[in-house]
Structures
1.
Amino acid sequence: MLELRDFSCERDNRLLFAGLHASFAAGEIWHIEGPNGVGKTSLLRQLTGISREFGGELLWQGRPIGECRYDFACALLYIGHQPGIKTALTARENLMAYCPESTSAQIEQALTDIGLYGFEDVGCYRLSAGQLRRVALARLALSTQPLWILDEPFTALDTQAVAALEQRFVAHAAAGGCVIITTHQKPSIDALKVLALGDYQPEVRFV
Ligand SMILES: Nc1ncnc2c1ncn2[C@@H]1O[C@H](COP(=O)(O)OP(=O)(O)OP(=O)(O)O)[C@@H](O)[C@H]1O
C-alpha cells in the first residue's frame, strides 16, 4: 500500500532518520519502534500527509503521494497520540460526528464492543483516560479504510483492552488491511513487522 524510498526527516536542523526504505503492504501489522524523541510520531505524521516535509519518496499504491492525496486520504484512518475527542460531547455524539455514514445501531454496537456500555451518553469530560481512548478507538470498528495509522493506541488501556485491540488489528490485517502503530509496549502479535528507528541507522527487521 504505502512505500518509503530513501526517506528522511529533519527537525530544527537535526536529522532524526535517513535512508529509510520500507514497504507497508496489505495483510501486515507494523510496529514503529524506538526510544523517546527518535522520530516515531514525526514519521507517522509524514506517512499520513499531515507533515509534507520529508526527504526521499512516499508512494501510495505505486504513485507519489502528491499525485493522489484525495485517494490516499479516503483510504486512511489516523488516530494521533491525543484521542481527538470533543469532551463537551458524549461518546455517542463523538462517534456520530466521526462516522456520519454509520447507523445508530452500528454506533451502539461499536461502543458496547469497546466496553463503553452504560457510558454512551455521558459527557466525555466525565470519562477516565482509558475510557476516552476507547471512544477514539471505537472508530476502528466502524472503519471502512484499509490503512490504519495509530500513534500509541495502547496508552491508558487496561490489559484486557490491549489484548482486544491487538485482536482487532489481526482481524483487520486478515481482511486485507494494513496497520501501522507506535507503542512503547511490545505487542503480542504473531508475524508483527518492526521498523526500528535509531540514530542515523534505521533498521528493518521481522519478528
Ligand atoms: N513541533 C516540533 N517542532 C520542532 N521539533 C519537534 C516538534 N515536535 C517534535 N520535535 C522534535 O522532533 C524529535 C522527534 O519527536 P517525535 O515526537 O517524533 O519523537 P517520538 O519518537 O515520537 O518520541 P516519544 O517516544 O517521546 O513519543 C524530538 O527531538 C522533538 O524535540
2.
Amino acid sequence: MKFKSPPVNSLSLDFLTEFCISLEKLENDRACRGVILTSAVPKIFSSGLDITEMCGKSTEHYAEFWRAVQEMWLRLYSSNMVTVAAVNGSSPAGGCLIALTCDYRIMAENPKFSIGLNEAQLGIVAPFWFKDTFVNVVGHRVAERSLQLGSLHSAPEAHRIGLVDELVPEEKLKDRATAVMQQWLALPDHARQLTKTMMRKAVLDRLVAHREEDVQNFISFISKESIQKSLRMYMEMLKKKKS
Ligand SMILES: CCCC/C=C\CC(=O)SCCNC(=O)CCNC(=O)[C@H](O)C(C)(C)COP(=O)(O)OP(=O)(O)OC[C@H]1O[C@@H](n2cnc3c(N)ncnc32)[C@H](O)[C@@H]1OP(=O)(O)O
C-alpha cells in the first residue's frame, strides 16, 4: 500500500478513512496475507496527524477525527496480516506510530530522514496507546527519554535504539521488504497470528476499554486555548522555515 497524499502524507480525516477502508478490504481478502506500507511521496513516509484537523474546529470534528485515528491504530495493530513498514522518508509523530504499529520496520539509510514521537515539541502529549506501542518496540527507558524530549531520531540513530529493525540503501528498500515479507509468510498463519495476538492483546484491550474516555480526553486537551496557540505557532514555524 503506497501513501500518496502530497505534499507530506499528513493523516487527515479523509486519509485515515481511506486507509481504514483499504485495510479492511485487504483483511477480508483471503488471498492477501501481508501488506507492505510505504510512500509514493518523495522523502516523506508520513508527516503525522494533519495539524489543521486539530486547529480551530468544532468539538464534533475533534471527536470524529480522533475516532478515525483510534480506528486506524486498532485495525493495524490487531491485523491478522503480516505488516511491514518500508519507511522511505521522514516519519514524525503519527507517521512514526504507523511504522511502530507494523510487525517489522525497514528504513532507508538516509541520515536526513528522521522518525520519532515528537509530540512534546509541539506542546502536545502522545496518548497512552502511542506510548504503549512505542514501549513494546524500544523498551521503557528508551521510550521515556525519547517521549519526554520529543526526539526525532535520524535513521542511523533510530536503528541503534531499535525503533527500526534495519536500514537499507533506498534503492534496495522494496526488494528487502519483499524478502522480509516472504520470510514471515513462510510460517503457518494460525501460529503467527495467535502469537501476535498474545503479544499485543493487553495494549489493544486497554484502548478498547477506554475508547470513549480517550476521545473526551483528546477533545478537552486539544480545545484548550494554550494548546491551540502552540499548534498555530508550530504551523507558522513550518511555513516560515520555507521562506
Ligand atoms: C493530544 C494530541 C495527540 C496527538 C498525537 C499525534 C500528533 C501528530 O501527529 S501532530 C503532527 C506532528 N508532525 C510534525 O511535527 C511534522 C511537521 N512537518 C515537518 O516537520 C515537515 O513538514 C516535514 C519534515 C514532514 C516535511 O518537510 P518539507 O518537505 O520541507 O515540507 P514542508 O515543511 O514545507 O511542508 C509542506 C506543507 O505541508 C504542511 N505540513 C507539514 N506537516 C503537516 C502536518 N502534520 N499537518 C498539516 N500540515 C502539514 C506544511 O505546513 C506545508 O504547508 P504549506 O506551507 O501550506 O505548503
